[in-house]
Task: structure prediction
Amino acid sequence: QVQVVQSGGGSVQAGGSLRLSCAAFGYTARYMYMAWFRQAPGKEREGVAAIYTGRPTTYYGDFVRGRFTISRDNAKNTVYLQMNELKPEDTAMYYCAAVTSGGSPLREDDYRYWGQGTQVTVSS
Result:
């Protein structure tokens, strides 16, 4: 019903910036949550940021507050993740996700549609 396509990522030096994009296609709802998750090798997947396409409410994982910013373009069903002051510990596979019903914004089990993943590597 919904296809999630993400782009961006790459390799940067510590302290650098990177911007990820994610678009949802198909039978998308007017109001939905879209979010970013990440998973580093040997670690569990964790919530990075989420945004609601109705009232512009945002949610962030504690480990990225003040460095990452999530934003939206509702006309394009697209969200962005601006990552600043990147650290080596930010290295992970980043996944975009969407859900068309209510749930916890940063709980991965509440998301139904997932992007293919984008690698972000931060070197020291």
In short: The first strand starts at residue 2 and ends at 7. DSSP finds no helices and eleven strands in the chain. The chain has a mean pLDDT of 92.
